[in-house]
Amino acid sequence: KKQGFALDRGENEKDVRCIAAPIRNFQGKIIAAVSISGPAFRIDVNTRNNQKEALLEISKKISKRLGYKEKSQREEKKEVKTIEKFSKV
């Protein structure tokens, strides 16, 4: 969750790798995902970061077209503090 993407390092299929990123709607809810999959030799440690960054950029563009607006880190921290405050009650 915190990193903003999912990575399959062959847990399902030994020689297949997958990277996925969420697509959010105008309410910020995850409604879909975009992913790339391929043989391990094409999605390896050396290429994975570039592929991940491209995928995250694409997912952000799609989300933006659906009305999603990213919260600033300040808003997120404030929201977490509020949730923590009320969860103790």
Automatic annotation (TrEMBL):
InterPro entries: GAF-like_dom_sf, HTH_MetabolicPath_Reg, Tscrpt_reg_IclR_C. Residues 1-68 form the IclR-ED domain. One of its GO terms (biological process) is negative regulation of DNA-templated transcription. GO terms for molecular function: DNA binding; DNA-binding transcription factor activity. This is IclR-ED domain-containing protein. It comes from marine sediment metagenome.
